[in-house]
Amino acid sequence: NVKSIELILFEEWEIAPLARFALEGLSTNLIMQRDNSMILEQYVSNICARDLRTTVQRKFKDIILPDKTIPEDDIKFKYEKTNTGDSIVKGEVNAPKVVLSMDLVNSILAVFDGISPPAKVEEEKPVKIKNDTPSLLTLKSIPSDVAISTTSSDQTIESVSVQGEPVKTFILAEIGALALYILEDPDSVSSEAMQLSVKKITFAQQTNMSLSIDSISAGFVNMDRLDEEAEAIVQFIDPFDVTATVELSTSAFEKAT
User: Fold this and answer.
1) pTM for the full predicted model
2) In the chain, helix, strand, coil percent, each to 5?
């Protein structure tokens, strides 16, 4: 068990903290079976993100709002390997509520822009072409009754196919009850915010790849009325669903896994 893993960002290399991101209450279980199968489970109790700036006083310090109404872990991850070599990956994120102010987002992006190295421009080097084909002078010096065989340098060698079915990887990832709030006035407790909510996001890969987003909606809400009924939200995008599926052929599936 690990108590927490933290990442703290500072503004412009000064001793001024900008934001803190943390995973708290980490728990890991590893189970090894006699038939060479394996199960790895990872649980994270809380996802935390907080505005640490002291130069400005914001009313909303928590970037990710804690939700005490749901007793489950914020993140669940499970990796399972069967005795046949197949892999099963499952991930779940429960009810993240993210509150953003644009000035904080710009400050965080500025930190990453400052630490990213400049792109290097590599000079083009001359390419030497190796030709293994005998020249005309060599051909003339060889008697006509001698057979000549040339081999190309980029000749491919076919690999021996392995008997049996290919190893497969099954993936299932879910994000439940996602809510994103973009603040109009971070200095006001009753600030109006644009809310983007999604009931559930599901990504799955088996023989096909599919992505489904259930009940996407958007509206305006006052931040001091989040605990009230749905009448407090003025919607400008009614709920709708999105589903996308990509069919994979057998050869493409083998390459993807």
Assistant:
1) 0.69
2) 10, 45, 40
What is the sign of the dihedral through the CA atoms of 245, 249, 255 and 257?
positive
| Residue whose C-alpha is closest to residue 204's, from 83, 88, 74, 80 | 88
Residue 3's identity, in one-letter code, is K
pLDDT recorded at residue 44:
93
Residue from 104, 96, 109, 9 nearest 44 by CA: 96
The CA-based dihedral angle spanning residues 93, 74, 26, 105, taken in that order and rounded to the nearest 10 degrees: 80
Report the alpha-carbon distance of residue 114 to residue 145 in Å, rounded: 71
DSSP string, 179-221: EEEEES-TT-TT-EEEEEEEEEEEEEESSEEEEEEEEEEEEEE
- DSSP tag of 230: G
Contact 174, 76 (CB under 8 A): no
**Selection from 166, 160, 164, 161 nearest residue 248 by Cα:** 166
Residue 223 φ then ψ, to 5°? -65, -20
Please state, in angstroms and rounded to a whole number, the distance separating the CA atoms of residues 205 and 214: 18
Instruction: Tell me the per-residue pLDDT of 221-250, one tens digit each, with 9 for 90 and over.
Output: 988 887 775 666 788 889 999 999 988 765
